[in-house]
Amino acid sequence: MIDFTESVAERFIGYTRFDTMSDDGKVGTVRPTTPGQLILLQQLEKELRELGLTTYLGEEQVVMGTLKGNVETPTIGFIAHVDTANDVMGNGVKAQRMVYKGGDVLLSGGTVIRAEENPDLEMYLGQEIITSDGTTLLGSDDKAGVAEIMEAISYLVLHPEIKHGDIEVYFTPDEETGSGMDRFPHDRKRSLCCYTIDGEREGEIELECFNAATVNVKIHGVSTHLGSGRGKLVNAITVASHIVTALPQAESPEATDDHYGYYCVLGIEGTQVDTSMQIFIRDFDKENFQRRIDNVIAICRAVESLYHAKVEIDSHVSYLNMAEANKRVPDATRSIMEAGKRIGLDLYESIIRGGTDGARLAESGTPCPNIFTGGHNLHSLEEWIGVSTMSKAVNLIIAIAQWWAEH
Fold first, then answer.
1. Can you give the C-alpha Rg of the chain in angstroms?
2. Is 175 a catalytic residue?
3. Please, is 260 exposed, middle or buried when counting C-beta atoms within 10 Å of its C-beta (0-12, 13-18, 19+)?
4. Among residues 85, 95, 84, 82, which one has the least CA distance to residue 9?
5. Residue 172 and residue 139: Cα distance in Å, rounded?
6. Which residue from 1, 138, 187, 387 could staple onto 132, CB 3.0 to 4.6 Å apart?
């Protein structure tokens, strides 16, 4: 296995310096939702062009690069996203490299990465990990994927003796807002299958994801003086609270794991006159997924009738389970597993309790399994990544390209 630890770590840290935290509130009004994303996209397009790839960055605000192959074989693609989440501060990242010496990791900003909550730290005893300073997330989701793809492409360019077919690279904005694939250059894509480099733990290959929907609810109450509100006042906040309590607590994110789906009220804001709320619905099974959507609508209508409020409901599907598309082209998975064996990497199949841009691509029929990056504790101040695993991800990308050249 080739040692990419130094080069991929420095490349990744360089990308973390770009402020690319996305903004859910600007979806549909501007793309990307934050200017730093476009700056990084332009930088990546420039780097790909300088490597000799044919590049495209059009109105979709998706970078596409094509590395011409040296053998005839189906075209494959690799995808990563440039934005970072806004669950905690994602801008002003100050990445730190350190050798893990055991025990808890105290970051300069006061955040503690606790060993008992991070058993995988033991894998990196005496090895380098990268963290933020503890005041922001790190951004391995998904700048680690961006760095690993760029490192692999750079190596293939510098080593033309390695056999590979045409390889397409895609870097997308706003994955964290769910709108990254709303506009994608499908007409330019030639890949038989693609691979998102957007996973977590070393060796993890994710072939299934949630079906995902969002239900937006607007509640309009009736205002009157509180002192004479009997029989007249309809408090929109009260109506919203009853909708929340009607959702089963046993089917919430904090109460489920594995293949169990959930309802999650992501936000409520407003006054007694007008209140809005956002409900996430997730399920691996398509029938259960639709049942959950219908349940939320039925609950809203029942509470609306009970309180004589006016409730507006808008539901839309964010992405679907990519399992079906992955099964249609078995070589998409086979190529990963056999490439892993080739380089001595232990891989295992898993599921994503979430989604990726690859799930949206799978809806168009293109299989898109998800490959690990090495990141842990994503979307949090305790985020960290193992440098040796980043190097292994680069090796796996190269080995997948070789597998297709040989088959």
1. 23
2. yes
3. middle
4. 95
5. 15
6. 138
Domain borders along the chain are 5-209+321-406, 211-319
Residue 314 annotated in active site? no
Catalytic residue, candidates 19, 60, 83, 357: 83
pTM: 0.91
Q: Which residues of 293-332 are buried (b: 16+ CB within 10 A; e: fewer)?
A: bebbeebbeebbeebebebeeeeeebbbbbbebbeebebb
Q: Given this model, what pLDDT does residue 194 score? A: 97
**Helix, strand or coil, per DSSP, at residue 167:** strand
- Judge whether 101 and 94 are in contact, CB under 8 Å: no
User: What CATH code would you report for 5-209+321-406?
Assistant: 3.40.630.10
- Contact present, 57 and 2 (Cβ < 8 Å): no
Q: Are 294 and 276 in contact (CB under 8 A)?
A: no
Give the integer Cα–Cα distance in Å for 403 and 317.
35
Cα–Cα distance for residue pair 221/311, rounded to 1 Å: 9
Q: What is the pLDDT of residues 245-268, one digit of tens each?
A: 999 999 999 999 999 999 999 999
State the catalytic residue, choosing from 60, 175, 304, 383: 175
